[in-house]
UniProtKB/TrEMBL annotation:
One Pfam short name: AHSA1
Chain segments annotated as coiled-coil in the UniProt record: none
Limits of the Activator of Hsp90 ATPase homologue 1/2-like C-terminal domain: 10-131
Native organism: Cryptosporangium arvum DSM 44712
InterPro entries recorded: ASHA1/2-like_C, START-like_dom_sf
Protein name (Swiss-Prot/TrEMBL): Activator of Hsp90 ATPase homologue 1/2-like C-terminal domain-containing protein
Protein family (similarity comment): Belongs to the AHA1 family.
């Protein structure tokens, strides 16, 4: 299990919108997160360059602006239960900031290093984007 925690000086609503709005995710993540954001509906992590989905899943739990959980699998592997993991974003207000905890459970062993290295970049970029207006793009 991978767990990452960061504090962001922004409202829970701003952070929530940055997690689910495709135009915003493109700014700091380089991909559009596309879904109706309804439990049971499909979620896709699409490249901004050509719109192809690299990662897909299903919205498992949605409680705005507190918790978002979705499954996570490489496109084409979503029907193999051994290749599907689970990502949860928990938002907890702490004074003027929000503690964002990202938990990634059940990740296939061959993906732990790559995905594990990617999440800190995504969270740093999200934090920079929300606090300064500019994402952290160097990787």
């Amino acid at each position: 299990m991978l767990i990452y925690v960061t504090a962001i000086t922004a409202s829970p609503g701003r952070i929530w919108n940055a997690l689910i709005d495709p135009a915003r995710t493109a700014r700091y993540w380089g991909h559009h997160n596309v879904s109706t954001w309804t439990t049971g509906e499909r979620w896709e992590h699409r490249r901004v360059t050509d719109g192809g989905a690299e990662t897909v899943g299903e919205v498992l739990e949605i409680d705005p602006p507190r918790r978002l959980t979705h499954s996570w699998a490489r496109a084409g592997e979503e029907h193999d239960p051994a290749r599907v993991s689970r990502v949860t974003f928990d938002l907890e207000p702490v004074g003027p900031r929000v503690r964002l905890t990202l938990t990634h459970e059940g990740l296939p062993t061959d993906q732990v290093a790559g995905v594990g290295a990617g999440w800190p970049f995504v969270l740093a970029s999200l934090k920079a984007y929300l606090e300064t207006g500019y994402p952290h793009l160097a990787r």
